[in-house]
Design brief:
Number of strands: 12
Strand content: 25-35%
Radius of gyration: 18 Å
Number of helices: 6
Number of domains: 1
CATH class: Mainly Beta
Structural class: alpha+beta
CATH architecture: Roll
Largest sheet: 7 strands, antiparallel
Length: about 200
Amino acid sequence: MIINAADIDAMEHLKRVQLATSLPGAKPICLVGTKSLTGITNLAPFSSITHLGSNPMLIGMVTRPDTVDRHTLRNILDTKSWTLNHVHEDILKQAHQCSARYPAETSEFTAVGLNEEFHPDIIAPFIKESRVRYALSLEDIVDIKANNTKLVIGRVQLIELPDASFQSDGGIDLIESGTLASTALDTYFSISKVAQLPYAKS
């Protein structure tokens, strides 16, 4: 099968979205935790997350166009703080339900039955049930003019994970922690290791 640019342009909207979000392959799925200036906590699933460097340790995520009120983006702009919480199978249904559009005065924590947890000096809430989670502070926002999305860049402030998941080389054992991956808007995958190869040298 060949799908060209004209085919993509002619696709029904949701079908095009499913194709676009599947195309990069399986990606990390995290729940973004934020808090409004009025104290309402918020959760939203994001799969457009990538590391942007290790010194300083920066993580980027892409937000949708802010043509409607985006509670996550608004809270990040207001507080400069958010958390990323890995999703595992025990909280998958609640995580998926967080993609529903709740009003700003409703906390997704309460709506889906997840528990807030706070750390000193971190404004945004963590998910108590998440096994791998970390907090970020706003470093930069890059406007992507082609489609009015934004690359939100955060500096890692705190990481919390099980002792058994932290490997001697600094990596995280995502299999031990049960971290899931996703494609499209509704499909989730468990992770299995195929190989761990030595550092490549020429």
